Request: fold
Amino acid sequence: MDSTELDKRHVWHPFTQMRGWNAGTPLVIVEADGAVLRDAEGREYLDGNSSIWTNLHGHRRPEIDAAIRGQLGRVAHTSFLGLTNDVAPQFAFELLRAFTQDDAPEGWRVFYSDDGSTAVEAGLKMIHQARQQRGEGERRKFVSLGAGYHGDTVGAMSVGHSALFHGTYRGLMFGSREVMSPACYRCPFNRAVPERGTDARLSRKCEWECVGEVAKALDDLGDAASAFVMEPRVQGAAGMTMHAHGYLARVAALCRERGVWLMLDEVMTGFGRTGAMFACQHEGVMPDVLALGKGITGGYLPLAATVASAEIFEAFDGEHSEWRTFFHGHSYSGNQLGCAAALASLRLLETVHPMAHVRARGEKLCALAQRFWEHPNVGDVRCEGMICAIEIVEDFATRRCFSAEQRVGFRVSEAARAHGLITRCVGDVLVLMPPYCVSEQQLAQAVDAQWRALAEVVPE
Ligand SMILES: *Cc1c(COP(=O)(O)O)cnc(C)c1O
Reply:
């Protein structure tokens, strides 16, 4: 039986209604090279969303391939419980150097897990336990940004705000205080319609009201507030919604003033995606906890990390008999293959794809994407680093969206395949975020394919 038949019989795909899936013809990817994916029929596609936001340097990158092969020649995986290895500590050091921008980072710690969700989960538990062990057990409440997405495990869902993804599981969740996201014109404080052709961020006036909402929430909770959790600058699953420069720094200051910790989820934005190594570096913000995943291995292997400040780590210090241990761990913690790939990827971010390169390619993509403004149903074209989002609306003037049943974004993304582009929308937001190795010609190809697909599904 071929793999398509076996897939339809035995596999359950993530975020997928399997009835519709089984009625269709799935695309079977068999190989890839750089920014190009190849299917079982030999057709080629641009990897327009970096394989769901994970890939940085392209597929079959020789340096990462060699690092994994080299590690495979020694050992693939041994336990990180009661043992260490010769790769994971090295990556922890290099990661902290990149994050703290200090050649000898002191005090910070890296906790390893496997996915973005587990990195967030570990961060939440660390914070909760640290509060108790510091004698601040009353600080138990998390505050988080509206429309935020932090993964699908129960803790990560608890600080997320997606009615569709999480609504069903509300009964399992511990809940967190939601504050208004300042993202784009959806913000109810901002009733002004942006001028056509301009990035909606420029015509917004709601940022400072939104900062006020954060202050209000933190003051309401007072000594019950433990940590503020957010995706800095770009909220991915919310629809690549982008915050104005300065919002993050203001929120960080509000937290600092009130003794509330800041946990940043850079699972999507980390490792250069926004044109800085970490999005928080755009605003000189140091969080207390940082969650990383997706691009950490260059998009090769499931590895994730939770970075903790010295202050948080110190709360766990004690004698064995005091039971201040962080009772959390995963079988594949510190996995050598993943850490070897991560080290190679980090090196590529310094040499082949430094931030100046990512920013330049991203600007090129953004310039090409301005063409979408010609379409009357495009409500916004927004960019940050190598992320470009094109939002489709039913009516520009009133900001009315198409009904969800019409699945416009989904149909546009599907139609793009026939033009050689694979990407995945978020609702009615089209997403172009290729690997950093993408050529200018491939960028033009991607924009062209997305444009044609849009014109087919939503005629002008
Ligand atoms: C994808 C994502 C996660 C979850 O990561 P998984 O690896 O899918 O568990 C968490 N936070 C953000 C911001 C993400 O984009």
